[in-house]
Amino acid sequence: MDAESGNKTINSMQARNRSQSIVIFSLVGVIFGLIFVLAIALTNNKTILQFPGKDSQSFIVGNSTANQEYFVNAADYFVNKLYNVTPVNARKNFDSILVATDPRTYPQIKKMLNETETRIVKEGITSVWSSTGAFKYLESEKTVTVEGMLKTYLADRLVSQEPKKLNIKFSMNNGTLALYSMGEVRENNGTQ
Fold first, then answer.
1. What are the respective helix, strand and coil percentages of the chain, to the nearest 5?
2. Which residues does residue 150 pair with via DSSP β-bridges, in sequence order?
3. CA-to-CA dists, residue 65 to 39, 124, 140, 157, 168, angstroms
4. Of 6, 75, 91, 97, which is least packed with CB atoms within 10 Å of its CB?
5. What's the rounded Cα separation, in Å, for the pair 83 and 93?
6. How far, in whole angstroms, is CA 97 from its chain's centroid?
7. Helix, strand or coil, per DSSP, at residue 54
8. Radius of gyration (Cα) for the chain, nearest Å?
């Protein structure tokens, strides 16, 4: 093999190596781009839950947000667990609330529910909640205002019947909804 032929072979191999390097680096770039797009898709992904039935609601749940129907349905659930109680089911209802409570407010809510349960059992209170169907959702604060009528009974005797307006605030992280706070709206100044 002569020097000229050897130089042509070396130049050919170097050109081939450069083109292969360009292809390899391009493929690595595409892979990293796809990983980045996939990471964005996974963190911003929304799941649509559709329950069977002709008139069923659809819930759209994302990483840190959900649609109005999801929040309203959750608020209705918590209010019913809190106010549809008897001395027999109070502990079970309140445990259902605590399981879905935000860790930051868990101690305060647990204390309030324990005090309420003690009073319900000691005095034999039964309460019944009837929602008016008036729900107001404030998306920026993840808060639902619920209106309804609360009836309280002692030994099957109606002792009070009063309209209530409640604010239920939620937190949401990694697609998991948690109760943050629940309180009555006072009509005179609109605060809890």
1. 45, 35, 20
2. 129, 162
3. 18, 40, 10, 43, 16
4. 6
5. 9
6. 14
7. coil
8. 30
At residue 101, the pLDDT reads 92
pLDDT (tens digit, 9 = 90+) per residue, 82-103? 999 999 999 999 999 999 999 9
Tokens coding 105: 């407010």
Which residue would you say has higher pLDDT here, 42 or 73?
73
Residue 26 DSSP SS3: helix
Q: Mean of the pLDDT values across residues 117-137?
A: 92
Which residues are CB-neighbours of 72 under 8 A, at least 6 positions away? 135, 137, 144
C-alpha dist (Å) from residue 77 to 108, 119, 185: 20, 22, 18
For 125, the enclosing helix (H) or strand (E) is strand 125-138
Report the share of the chain in percent with pLDDT over 70. 89
Quote the tokens at residue 9.
């072979």
